[in-house]
Design a protein that fits this description.
Number of helices: 10
Helix content: 25-40%
Largest sheet: 8 strands, mixed
Order of helices and strands: HEEEHHEHEEEHHHEEHHEHEEEE
Strand order of the largest sheet: 8-10-7-11-9-12-13-14
Length: 382
């Protein structure tokens, strides 16, 4: 049947009310974790530098001359796993685990190479592990990487018991990549991307997401199931899709899209994986500029359903979910057409979504929604 949300209560829903307090997380990391982690040092003379920890960028680069710079990142799937458990559909989260990691690696200009997975579970269920592994394989095929190893930990006493009767598990990956040789040189490697070359007048290109990917599920579950009383069998209005299908759609892998740019002779000025934090992730790019997104396409119907079901304001939606854009690429205005054509050849329905402005402060303006954001928060434009 069609999903008809029940009238929500009068209070609008925030991400913190749904169980994820991003502001407190960032403050806690800055105060009690970063000071310790920043003091760690590699003692081996093989490593000449490691960059990335202080900037909070998408991946960390480690220099081991004379070889290529190595890129490292780690990420999990999050509470989307709870929906996989309820629906007994585990393959999508394997793809998600790969995609979440390789999509971060390409933001520094790296080519993903391999991933190690970690599964924590309360018990061994071969059918579930088979589906998870198949999903990891499918993601690896899309990304062009190997999964040469990993770990399964049986820690039932540490995990909450599943109400569905199936196993409870968590899935995390750690990925490695490298900067490839630079075209036209014998000994040099591709210059790492950190967004420092982004300039006012540059163009922001957006690549569509397949839905929520694997971010904001605490907010989505709170809105759809706790506040509106919907089920996975309900239908998303305007799409004809069951909620289970819309919410368990795997994260898209953007590796081929990124490489298509360099193959076409386009050197991106910056790239941003739009994951947790939504379009505010663009502000991780190093240049002290701002972004005016004035041509965002309409978000898929699932986002409107979440907003209506949970009475969630636009500021929270844009600060939490990708709203239909899974990856952003910043290129020089002169490279816009070449980039769009290359991305189209790679299979992407890429669109120009905005421009870079000279305004300092790393803000993001969503013109259609009347919002401007900085850090982790969007607010109405005054």
């Amino acid at each position: 049947m069609n999903a008809t949300p029940q009238p929500p209560d009068h209070a609008t829903t925030s991400y913190a009310q749904a169980g994820v307090d991003e502001e407190r997380e960032q403050e806690a990391f800055a105060r009690v974790m970063r000071p310790w982690l920043a003091r760690t040092r590699v003692k081996s003379p093989m490593v000449t530098s490691i960059t990335g920890l202080a900037s909070g960028y998408f991946a960390t680069l480690m220099q081991l001359p004379p070889g290529p710079p190595i890129a490292l990142t780690t990420d999990g799937v999050g509470t989307k796993i709870m929906l996989a458990e309820e629906a007994n559909r585990w393959e999508p989260i394997g793809v998600d685990c790969v995609a979440n990691n390789v999509n971060d690696l390409i933001c520094v200009g790296a080519v993903p190479l391999a991933l190690l997975d970690y599964i924590a579970t309360d018990r061994i269920d071969e059918a579930v592990l088979d589906e998870v592994a198949r999903g990891l394989f499918l993601g690896a095929e899309l990304a062009g990487i190997a999964i040469p190893g990993g770990e399964i930990a049986q820690i039932g006493e540490m995990l909450a018991k599943s109400a569905s009767g199936g196993p409870t598990l968590d899935l995390v990956g750690t990925a490695i990549g490298a900067l490839p040789p630079a075209m036209g040189t014998e000994n040099g490697y591709r210059q790492p991307l950190d967004g420092s070359k982004v300039n006012p007048g540059d163009v922001v290109i957006g690549l569509p997401s397949s839905g929520l990917h694997s971010n904001g599920y605490s907010l989505a579950r709170h809105a759809l199931f706790k506040k509106a009383g919907l089920t996975l069998d309900d239908t998303v209005p305007g799409s004809g899709r069951r909620l289970a299908d819309a919410l368990l759609q795997p994260t898209r892998v953007y590796v081929n899209a990124a490489e298509s740019l360099w193959a076409a002779g386009v050197a991106p000025h910056g790239m941003a994986h739009i994951s947790g934090g939504g379009l505010l992730n663009i502000t991780r790019l190093a240049a002290n500029v701002s972004y005016r997104l004035d041509s965002l396409p309409s978000a898929p119907e699932i986002f409107a359903l979440i907003a209506n079901a949970g009475d969630i304001d636009a500021a929270t939606m844009y600060a939490t979910l990708n709203m239909g854009i899974g990856f952003c690429i910043v290129v020089a205005e002169d490279d816009q057409q070449t980039a769009l054509e290359a991305l189209k050849r790679s299979g992407e329905d890429a669109v120009r979504i905005g421009t870079v402005t000279a305004r300092p402060g790393r803000t993001v303006e969503i013109t259609a929604a009347g919002l401007v954001g900085k850090g982790d928060v969007f607010q109405p434009v005054r």
